[in-house]
Amino acid sequence: MAYALQQLINGVTLGMIYGLIAVGYTMVYGIIGMINFAHGDIFMVGAFLSLIALTGLAALGISSVPLALAITLVFAAGLAALYGWTVERVAYRPLRGSFRLAPLISAIGMSIVLQNFVQVSQGARVKPMAALIPGGMPLMRDGTFTVQLSWMQIAIVITTLVMLAAFTWLVTRTPLGRAMRACEQDLKMAGLLGIDTDRTISLTFVIGAALAAVAGLLFLLYYGVIDFFIGFVAGVKAFTAAVLGGIGSLPGAVLGGLAIGLIETFWSAYFSVQYKDVASFSILVLVLIFMPTGILGRADVEKV
Amino acid sequence: MAPLLAVRDLTMRFGGLTAVDALSFEAREGEITAVIGPNGAGKTTVFNCITGFYRPTSGSLALARGGGFALERMPGHLIARRARVARTFQNIRLFAGMTVLENLMVAQHNMLMPNVARGLLAVFGLGGHAKLERAAIEKARLWLDAIGLTARADDPAGALPYGAQRRLEIARAMCTDPVLLCLDEPAAGLNPRESDELSNLLRQIRSGMAGLPGCSILLIEHDMGVVMRISDHIVVLDHGRKISDGTPDQVSHDPKVIAAYLGEGDEDEIPAEAQA
Predict the structure, then answer these.
(1) Below-70 pLDDT ranges, chain A
(2) Cα(A4)–Cα(B70) distance, integer angstroms
(3) CB distance B119–A174 less than 8 Å?
(4) pLDDT digits over A168-183, tens only?
(5) For chain A, which domains are there?
(6) Which residue from A131, A220, A228, B15 has the fewest beta carbons nearer than 10 Å?
(7) Residue range B62-89: average pLDDT?
(8) Distance, CA of A119 to CA of A127 (rounded, Å)
(9) Lowest mean pLDDT among A248-252, B43-47, B123-127
(10) B93 CA to chain A: closest CA distance, Å?
């Protein structure tokens, strides 16, 4: 019982990180119908930027943890946003209006470019970092086993939920969000109504990348180790989460992330760690067979 | 009245096909100008040139507003933003998944979010955004009243009946504050009552209504009832050339126009309306 509760906590935490990355996938897919495969690598870049910032701040002697985190957040999200903007500008915009597969190939290319860039500039070895927010609270004791809820886990869950609420609000209530949804439905018509569609798409990439950097920072703080390859694995998982939740839906992305996180954690805990990915992707296949639009995806209703 | 849009020697060729051939006409300010002609006469091509979808092979499209705009050299979204020419399409292109009100709000995007900084301020509700948003909603409300859709403001646009979608599309175009509204077959598929409502709406748009400025209209239409009833000025095209130009009365008695329509085999299209 206590063991299951601990797995639940771990699974939810992992799921929230996947969910946060998945939101970026879903936003970009929503607006231009393209899978941005470089998104996972922007997440990885965000984690590295966070590590650089935290190391730099420690060297400068800034010992206040909240201050260091705030500066790191702004630094990592800002620079990652710049990466996101550049990727869109260089690799996707010139291919807009080209055949459907072209930006997809270009996205895979950008993913490899970012991975190799970080591998070369930062080294291929795993980078460790000492825990910045240690500790937590014991929830329950069962014999020798103590269920532990760490501060970091609470922080991750709260951050993801706050981000989800903020972005849902952004998309549904603000002029920028309306413009994004208009571009999603009819890019050309949106342009004819005076919306600068290129700018709206750029902003979507910028926002998605900043969000990925937040996820990167959380990942770094939670696991304490990163390398240049984390973006690939997390990216594939987050993409799966976005599809599972219903691509295009923000709450769906987080819900999908939760599902993948829980399946993975429970499978590892009770069956075998080696087969955890097999389990989560099998579930994905099953869900897509019976619910092709995902958990919260809406089917396009066409009035005839 | 002064010409608002002057089309001069407009020619559009697609390979060997000349869709529009040295066409010249004017749309005057405060008037409804109709462009009519048999199928394939080049009407929609003229529209596509005016709104920047096509770049004309030769000729000029001068819009007399402010310092004047050469539409033949401007990209589509700038024609909408700067020259303030709005258009609708033969097929309905509403944002079907967004609500009726949101469709009208999107059209006021430039007012609400003129640049990225304002857009970011708006996200945090700063920079007087609430006031702008209220003004935009107020304007949308006036248009909803005008098209009789106030009660359905929060329904998805795609759920409206066809005639209401047509009117909403026109209201959405008007929310961009155009000086010239280009309508491509707005009466297509409407029943007689709906086309009457449409005629009234277009007349109101031309002369302006309570709290809303007037706007000149350029119209492509096959429904001769609508055309004859509301147009101030009609341009008739056939095979890409202008064959007649004048008031509804002049045009409907022009032998060349009657021949062009009869020649196409649509015997009942003009003569029945000519008496009206």
Answers:
(1) 298-304
(2) 71
(3) yes
(4) 888 888 888 899 999 9
(5) 2-290 (1.10.3470)
(6) B15
(7) 82
(8) 11
(9) B123-127
(10) 7
Give the best residue of B53, B101, B113 to mutate against chain A (max A CB count within 10 A). B113
B246 Rama sector, left if φ>0, alpha if ψ -120 to 50, beta otherwise: left
The whole-angstrom distance between B77's CA and the closest CA on chain A is 5
Task: Please answer whether residues A45 and A114 qualify as being in contact, where contact means their C-beta atoms are separated by less than 8 angstroms.
Answer: yes
Residues 202-221 of A with CB under 8 A from B: 203
**N- to C-terminal Cα distance for chain B?**
26
Place of tokens 């022009």: B254
Tell me the chain A residues in contact with residue B157 when contact means C-beta distances shorter than 8 Å.
none
Gap between the Cα atoms of A7 and B109, Å rounded? 47
Alpha-helical runs (H) found in A123-249: 151-173, 175-185, 187-192, 197-223, 230-245
Per-residue model confidence (pLDDT) at position B276: 44
ipTM value: 0.79
The residue assigned the tokens 């909240």 is A66
Tokens of B142: 């006036």
- Rounded to an integer, what distance in angstroms lies between the CA atom of residue B239 and that of residue A232? 58
Instruction: Report pLDDT for B1.
Output: 58
Residue A150: which residues within 8 A CB-CB, separation 6 or more? A133, A134, A135, A136
Domains in chain B, CATH or no CATH each: 1-84+178-276 (3.40.50.300), 93-176 (no CATH)
CB contact under 8 A, B176 and A194: yes
The number of residues in chain A equals: 304
Report d(CA B166, CA B39) in Å as an integer.
21
- pLDDT, residue A298, reads 65
pTM of the full predicted structure?
A: 0.85
